[in-house]
Amino acid sequence: MLTHASALEIIRDTELEQFTDDVVSKLLKTNDLKVEDFNIYFIKSDQINAFVTGGKNIFINTEIIISANDYREFAAVIAHELAHIIGGHIFNTRLEISNLSNRAFPIYLLGIIGMITGATDKGLIGVMVGQASVNDGFTFYSRTQEAAADQAAVNILCKSEIDGKYLINFLNKIEKLEKHNSIDEQSYRSTHPLIQNRIVWINSSLNSIDNCKFNGDIKMQERFELLKAKLHGFTHPYLETEAVYNSSSDVDLYATAVSSYFQGDHSKSIDNMKELIRNNPTNPFYKELIGEIYFANNDYINAVNSQKSAIELIDQANDLYFMMIGNYLLNFEKKKQSLEAIEYLKKSIHLNSSNAYAWYLLSRAYAQTGSIPLANYATAERYFISGERQLSYEFALKALKHIEEYSPEWYRSNDLIEILKKEVSNR
Length: 427
Hints:
The chain is mainly alpha-helical. Helices cover 61% and strands 6% of the residues. Strands 1, 2, 3, 4, 5 and 6 form a 6-stranded mixed beta sheet that branches.
């Protein structure tokens, strides 16, 4: 396994993605850009860092959220990274992650145990442990670009009615933390200029703005506290989470439900989640998590019912939610549930055609219903996404022999063959 110095462990989670999208949308409300224009990746790491690479790719370490006390500190970090992209900065960098989708796959924040079930293909290890190779460390910014990004970030925050002082608050927090801890080569400080210099730049920008003092959004803060607790339970040791979140509040129950889940104490997780659901029956993320726990305990009926409820409650459609329920349904190993799984998995892929694990599950679903040509087609798509060009080509050829002529899958199989023919023949 690659070490932290040579790998990025990419994670995906619906609650994390939707909250971040809401923050980014708020930051872009006076800009022509939209959240869909950016690729935002989350890295499971205990280091406080965020950076951008070529294009519109933003990478955020989970510890950024855990270390922040207020959602506006998180928003300030994102504003800074957005400023780099909007400013068109060209980085003097020893790291460039290109074509990420061909080099790394996500692990799923609360789906690791469930997703592995039934995955007999050793190649799927790459799907479950999402790592992108890194050769030489993290991005290093020039002083000029960093100063410009800090000043632009203040403008973005103020125009979004977020108090610009939260960027300073976060930088002060980093400095205090680093005084008590050894500085790692991947730390925020090592990839950015001196914090005190940055604070001078930010204060200068704030002084030039008439008014950048705004009240916070109480609901956003409540959502942030829950997300932070969830991430703590996922990324920090069990005993640490139990020590930090030790009350009976909803936030603490959420954190310990997650930590207990990974510790193997599923009964405690279920008890916590049932209480949370009683307190807030319309929270889709609670339903999702309890469904995960049921699934880990082979209680497929309750898992499916909980996930269906989560899908009904969530504000916007999400590929992960459809993927997860598809996985649950497949484990019944009955044709009726497999046909239902196909419909959900198609919805997942429609929302995100680069979700390699959804393609894998779809191939399983087709095989369980006897549709082998379609299973071959779905496998060709999965291998295409993972960069296994030869295997993709071979499965597309297999699919084309027996797939229904002029169907969407027939056309796509032909497309894959044409795309891959030259590449495969040159090997």
